[in-house]
TrEMBL record:
<dbReference type="InterPro" id="IPR051685">
    <property type="entry name" value="Ycf3/AcsC/BcsC/TPR_MFPF"/>
</dbReference>
<dbReference type="InterPro" id="IPR019734">
    <property type="entry name" value="TPR_rpt"/>
</dbReference>
<keyword id="KW-0802">TPR repeat</keyword>
<dbReference type="Pfam" id="PF14559">
    <property type="entry name" value="TPR_19"/>
</dbReference>
<dbReference type="InterPro" id="IPR011990">
    <property type="entry name" value="TPR-like_helical_dom_sf"/>
</dbReference>
<dbReference type="Pfam" id="PF13432">
    <property type="entry name" value="TPR_16"/>
</dbReference>
<feature type="repeat" description="TPR">
    <location>
        <begin position="139"/>
        <end position="172"/>
    </location>
</feature>
<keyword id="KW-0677">Repeat</keyword>
<feature type="repeat" description="TPR">
    <location>
        <begin position="105"/>
        <end position="138"/>
    </location>
</feature>
<feature type="repeat" description="TPR">
    <location>
        <begin position="34"/>
        <end position="67"/>
    </location>
</feature>
<feature type="repeat" description="TPR">
    <location>
        <begin position="68"/>
        <end position="101"/>
    </location>
</feature>
<protein>
    <submittedName>
        <fullName>Tetratricopeptide repeat-containing protein</fullName>
    </submittedName>
</protein>
Length: 226
């Protein structure tokens, strides 16, 4: 077992300082080991020590400027801090390096999430849909596409992506609830079927989600009175 693996075992055991020290030792002995930098920076991110994480990723970037994993981690660091414009530029660097399809899909998705964070839902949709085209089986991509379309009040299109999420992950509680929500908004007869399934999968979560349903029902009733 190498130090990278050992460090994560220590981390999972709650021995964070020991895990970090082990990675520093790995970097000292093998300064070209990108994995050690990525793991160390990621641990600092999880501890919300963003300046330390940035320093580690910057060093890794100097040593391996075309390493897509390092650039992606740097982008994610900015995203976590709400620096969406800077994050987008980093994710675009990943795309420009033409990585494998999974990484390409992830980068497009995160650009979409960054635009969503900035409140630009139309641009967000473009990139999230691109991610769904590259990796149509990823539930999070389909759910996010549905969520953005719902925000844009494109309910018919939104339900198609919730259907895809259910198709690829048949026991996803949130996908059933959101699909039921679309059926409810569109006044379709089968909304209760989806809500019933959502309730069966996670009764406690469903009770929380009912608040959202009641808010939407009140909004629809108010609109109909105008």
């Amino acid at each position: 077992m190498n130090r990278n693996q050992q460090s994560f075992e220590l981390w999972e055991q709650g021995k964070k300082e020991e895990a970090i020290q082990l990675l520093f030792e790995e970097i000292e002995e093998h300064p070209a080991d990108a994995d050690a930098y990525i793991n160390l920076g990621s641990m600092f991110m999880m501890m919300e020590k963003y300046e330390d994480a940035a320093a580690i990723f910057a060093t890794a970037s100097e040593k391996s400027p075309d390493n897509t994993e390092v650039i992606y981690c740097f982008a994610s660091l900015y995203y976590e801090q709400g620096q969406y414009e800077v994050a987008i530029k980093q994710y675009e660097k990943v795309i420009a390096l033409k990585p494998e399809q999974e990484a390409l899909a992830d980068a497009n998705f995160m650009i979409g999430m960054s635009y969503q964070g900035m409140g630009d839902y139309n641009r967000a949709l473009v990139y999230v849909l691109r991610a769904t085209e590259l990796s149509p089986e990823v539930t999070d991509f389909n759910l996010s596409a549905g969520d953005i379309l719902m925000s844009l009040e494109q309910f018919d299109q939104a339900k198609q992506y919730y259907d895809l999420a259910i198709q690829h992950e048949p026991d996803h509680q949130g996908a059933y609830f959101k699909r039921g929500l679309m059926a409810f908004i569109l006044d379709e007869a089968d909304s209760e079927v989806y809500f019933k399934k959502a309730s069966e999968l996670d009764p406690e979560m469903y009770q929380e989600q009912l608040k959202q349903l009641k808010e939407i029902e009140s909004f629809i009733q108010a609109q109909s009175k105008k």
